């Protein structure tokens, strides 16, 4: 639509805040009837540049179930948000948060995943968390499934590889929408749904003994089950609470061709399609044609029930949430100079970008590119629900953390968000990952810190768990108070 008016900054009512996940903050893994989750069966990494989140086998799950400690499983202890939520939410309110993105631990509501009745003690915990948020005028943004599911569903039916899991999930979502009608305005179904292609993290299925072709078949079949479950949840939400909004969530992996060689450009285009496939289905409501060839050439055949496509079309999301941390380079050449960085190990290093301590390439302009491409493609409200810098913060003797590097990172990304808004992009909010130090998902480290708030705990779980404000705490407070105008 043509208009002579160009936005000059962030819109009124922009949703500033921070984002977390239950399995990385809550702790209390065996309290008040909670069941064990898939995330709590993943051991901490031995090398911080090597992902450990999919390093799971049938025998390691048996070992995890038998081990009733948190020594090797840091996500079981988190940062004890379960007992510190009032203190933490008060700190978020001091920063001026408009929203707080949180996930619900499925196994806290249905300990085994397929229980006949929900666990009231688990629901009561979230009652209290949401009540505390509203006390300060903070709206919860709730992810229904964030990289975890009841471990029992893995043991009994290999997670999302089974179509039966759709029924278990929609029983869970129905309880949530009824319980929190009018309490939660913003929902998301699956966190970074494209992570399912990595295996266990997203699928909840153990497939490490399968061939690559068999793995591909299982993982894409599992994501089909999630597509159907997500669409059914959207329908439930709209019927139970018409005022609520429900979105999807993608890990955006923006990629650039290595050169202007058309072969590199096409390779990058394909890589992009494989990333956007998930939002094409959830936002547009149908499988895109380009996947037909990919499935055929990779021996994948999606098994659908007669009404699946109608369900997916009827369950399109209201908004598109996504995480943005980095970009990568794609080439058609078989001779790729790989570089270390635990999310970009298959990419070449971009000589124009800096990298974080964990090898993630920092690309603020790439966020503006992503926002423009998303808006051009989907024309639905966009919500950046994860963006942040993991670093090895050091606390001074007087309990200060001078994290100027984090401020610089966030400033550059917020500047590019503002530029995208000027470009015409409809951006509804921004929640940084994570506003308080938490357990890293990819490696289960505590030393990889993202927060505006320092938590006194090390990788072994030692520490007082006391919370301390970093320099970035005061900076982000100023950003929110000025609605993104004061970035100094």
Automatic annotation (TrEMBL):
GO molecular function, one term: beta-glucosidase activity
Alphabetized Gene3D superfamilies for the sequence: Glycosidases
Pfam families, alphabetized: Glyco_hydro_1
GO BP term, example: carbohydrate catabolic process
Claim: Chaperone is one of the keywords in the record: no
Domain of life, source organism: Bacteria
Active site per database record: 386
Keywords assigned by UniProt, alphabetized: Glycosidase, Hydrolase
GO cellular component terms attached to this protein's record: cytosol
Alphabetized PANTHER family for the sequence: 6-PHOSPHO-BETA-GLUCOSIDASE ASCB-RELATED, GLYCOSYL HYDROLASE
Membership in a protein family: Belongs to the glycosyl hydrolase 1 family.
Name of the protein this chain belongs to: 6-phospho-beta-glucosidase
Organism: Xylocopilactobacillus apis
């Amino acid at each position: 639509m043509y208009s002579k008016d160009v936005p000059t900054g962030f819109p009124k009512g922009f949703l500033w805040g921070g984002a977390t996940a239950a399995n990385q903050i809550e702790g209390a893994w065996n309290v008040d009837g909670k069941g064990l989750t898939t995330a709590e069966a993943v051991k901490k990494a031995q090398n911080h540049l090597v992902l450990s989140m999919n390093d799971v086998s049938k025998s390691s799950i048996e070992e995890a179930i038998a081990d009733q400690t948190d020594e090797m499983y840091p996500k079981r202890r988190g940062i004890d948000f379960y007992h510190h939520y009032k203190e933490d939410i008060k700190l978020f309110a001091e920063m001026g948060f408009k929203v707080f993105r949180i996930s619900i631990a499925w196994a806290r509501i249905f300990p085994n995943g397929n229980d006949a009745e929900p666990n009231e003690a688990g629901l009561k915990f979230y009652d209290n968390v949401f009540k505390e948020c509203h006390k300060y005028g903070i709206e919860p943004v709730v992810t229904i499934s964030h990289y975890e599911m009841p471990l029992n569903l893995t043991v009994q039916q290999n997670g999302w590889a089974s179509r039966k899991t759709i029924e278990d999930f929609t029983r869970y979502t129905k309880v949530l929408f009824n319980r929190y009608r009018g309490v939660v305005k913003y929902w998301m179904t699956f966190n970074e749904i494209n992570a399912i292609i990595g295996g266990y993290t997203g699928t909840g299925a153990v497939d490490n003994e399968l061939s690559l072709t068999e793995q591909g078949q299982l993982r894409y079949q599992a994501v089909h089950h999630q597509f159907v479950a997500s669409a059914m949840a959207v329908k439930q939400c709209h019927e139970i609470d018409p005022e609520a909004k429900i979105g999807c969530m993608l890990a955006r992996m923006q990629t650039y061709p290595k050169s202007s060689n058309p072969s590199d450009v096409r390779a990058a285009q394909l890589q992009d399609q494989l990333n956007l496939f998930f939002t094409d289905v959830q936002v547009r409501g149908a499988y895109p044609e380009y996947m037909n060839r990919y499935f055929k050439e990779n021996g994948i055949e999606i098994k659908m029930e007669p009404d699946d496509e109608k369900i997916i079309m009827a369950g399109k999301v209201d908004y598109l949430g996504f995480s943005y941390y980095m970009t990568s380079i794609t080439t058609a050449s078989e001779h790729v100079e790989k570089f270390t960085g635990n999310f970009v190990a298959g990419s070449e290093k971009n000589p124009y970008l800096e990298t974080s301590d964990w090898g993630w390439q920092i690309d603020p302009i790439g966020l503006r590119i992503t926002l423009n491409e998303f808006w051009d493609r989907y024309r639905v409200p966009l919500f950046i629900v994860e963006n942040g810098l993991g670093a090895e913060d050091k606390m001074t003797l007087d309990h200060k953390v001078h994290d100027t590097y984090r401020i610089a990172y966030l400033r550059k990304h917020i500047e590019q968000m503002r530029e995208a808004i000027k470009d015409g992009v409809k951006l509804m909010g921004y929640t940084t990952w994570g506003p308080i130090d938490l357990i890293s998902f990819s490696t289960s480290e505590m030393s990889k810190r993202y927060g505006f708030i320092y938590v006194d705990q090390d990788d072994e779980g030692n520490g007082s768990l006391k919370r301390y404000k970093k320099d970035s705490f005061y900076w982000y407070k100023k950003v929110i108070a000025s609605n993104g105008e004061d970035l100094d």
